[in-house]
Amino acid sequence: MIIGSIRDGIVIDHIPAGRGMELYSYLKLGRLDCEVALIKNAESGKRGKKDIIKIGAPIDINLDILGYIDTGITVNIIRDGQRAEKIHPALPETIVHLIKCKNPRCITSCEQELPHVFRLTDREHGVYRCMYCDTKAEK
Amino acid sequence: MKTRGLIDIAEMTTEELDAMMDVALDIVENPAKYAESCKGKKLATLFYEPSTRTRMSFESAMLDLGGSVIGFSDAQSSSVSKGESVADTARTVECFVDVIAMRHPKEGAPLVAQMNVGIPVINAGDGGHNHPTQTLTDLFTIKRELGHLDNLVIGCCGDLKFGRTVHSLVTAMSRYPGVRFVFISPEELRIPEHVRSEVLDAHNIPYVETTSLEDVMPELDILYMTRVQRERFFNEADYLRLRDSYILTPDKLVTAKKEMRILHPLPRVNEISVAVDEDPRAAYFRQVRNGKFIRMALFLKLLGIEVK
Predict the structure, then answer these.
(1) Which CATH code for domain A9-87?
(2) B109 touches chain A (CB under 8 A)
């Protein structure tokens, strides 16, 4: 399979295999007018398989989402056909509106306008808990 | 500066807890000194689910400090029944009072209230989540009964899964040196994984889990009994099956230490036989009384009132 290189844009690499579509959805890439390629199960030296997303325009990427999905993901910023920057997203301290609390006893289950906020409570294991009820986020 | 209430006991430092218990002790010994200390202050008790003990404890605490109380004890009699949000109710009530005590069946509701007002909000119990003033009551009772909070073996018995008072007690007691826990429960109501990993294991607090109360009774300094709460179950059959798992009777106390104390957040259903009430080790009604004194100390702290 041949997918052409991009001149100005972003390559999100080392996405855990099978999670590329989830990331595509989180980043709302379906709304973009530019070229976007999602490559599933590409060969990876480190992981065996990986997903890759190529975006043919320089857009703002929410690094918090990438860090939450997997800190092994890399973001390559491409300018004039060259890699201008390589970013390793870190675990964000807080995640807002990305995941929803599934605890039926949580106040967010009945007050729809409240923001869904999760806080990093265990950096070593990447554990996030709902700010309101302390329920653990399920990845 | 961010307004400070009490949503989770973990927000309080050990020094703050100790200082508050000192004030509560002084209130016990010199009640007249504090009788006018909250004159002109008003408490709102916003109770969205039933409670006898906690609401009356908050109200009598404020009244004994010379303050006054307004509020509701049934969400159906307030604007909540018209669909008002917690935030809007809190903002409205803030216009009338100096401090709010809120009980709500949904977890996190008091936090939402605190985020929307500039007066202290006290969490008086949010679902199966937190109940910090019960924990203050428990700590103050242990301190009064045994004289210290360190080097204790604390047995928690009954519903350790949904029992919010147990989770808060474990979190609060873990900060005192030499404390060890014994968790006695049926398999289905074990202490949750997050309490084990993020509180006990994270701070290297020793603990054991068992299904037999009799086996561990001789080693306990505190036996903290809990009720299996119907309102925490979605399934009535599960509730009925687990309700009678542990019932404390005088014969089970034969092997207990003479200085051991029995605590219970109350109300009890049948998990402590009434025959145990006469045992001097039964501290649960003294515990209720202590709840008022420590809530008085909490009001003084949150309202920034110092009594000389």
Answers:
(1) 3.30.70.140
(2) yes
